[in-house]
Amino acid sequence: MAANSNNNLNVGMRCIKYMLFVINFMFVLTSVLLITVGLTIKTIFNEFDTFVDDHFMSAPTLLVAIGFILLIVAIFGCVGAVKESTMMINVYGVLLALIFILEVSAAISAFVLQGQVADMLIRTMFESLEQFPKNVYVRDAVDFMQSALECCGVHQPQDWEGILAPSNNTANPKEIVLPESCCNSHYQGETSIECVFFTEGCFNQMNFVISQSAMLIATGATTVAFVQILGVICAFMLAKTIRRTKTQRALRQWQLQQSLGIYNKPINHYNPPYVQLNNAEKPQRDPDTQDFIYQPNSPSVN
Predict the structure, then answer these.
(1) Closest by alpha carbon to 199, among 183, 219, 218?
(2) Cα–Cα distance measured from residue 120 to residue 53, given in angstroms and rounded to the nearest whole number
(3) Strand 191-197, strand 183-188: pairing
(4) Residue 184, phi then psi, degrees to nearest 5
(5) Cα distance between residue 149 and residue 12, in whole Å
(6) Is the pTM of this model over 0.85?
(7) Is the pLDDT of residue 278 over 70?
(8) What is the rounded CA–CA span in Å between residue 125 and residue 50?
(9) Quick one: which H or E segment has residue 25?
(10) Helix (H, G, I), strand (E, B), or coil: what is residue 178?
């Protein structure tokens, strides 16, 4: 009966370990997903960093940091499961709770940033158009935006009015001069045969790219945060189960020792061993307890 109970406890402990391994494997996949999404959005923001304020970079950076922390915590949870350490699994649950707080912070910041995208882009894009003739770095950024998104100006090509000076050969001095990045050129060999200017502004597309990136951070962090709550609950429940299983295992071992008669009671000074006395000797006092030491053949007993 005791052997069957121990076998059941061992099977239960293995099931707990496998369950924790599965949960941690899901967290590893989640961490890789968070890192990938965070790096992708950070790359997008870096490509359009001229039009994106610095504080917008904090959300994807935080998402990447959460992914790496979650990866380390998942490995920590696997080690705790292998060692059957209740303390390590409890620490693992606390770390998951802290990661949940970070994820909620990332989601809130992303939701807040999403509402600021439109105003930010209008301000930064018009400022970039004004600095286009003077700043080479801004010029490259604007050209990249217009070429990549196939657009011209902020809302329309007329936004370039008065920014670029017309050439001396221009018949109409009031004609709006557009940069080459506003032109979709068709080439035959190395010679341009046709130039078609873009008619749509860049604001709508930029607003879509940046807003969707912020929304992806917010929804991703929120979804993972709710999954994280389930992980915290499971971690503490598993720690409690391991503690109970280890206690039952120790109790079974103690009962087995009792049934086999190999349990030895420790000796202390309150239960001193009997000392054999000669018949001629009188009972002696124990030096620690001052109690008389009697033996069956002691004169005081006979």
Answers:
(1) 183
(2) 8
(3) antiparallel
(4) -95, 95
(5) 58
(6) no
(7) no
(8) 8
(9) helix 2-47
(10) coil
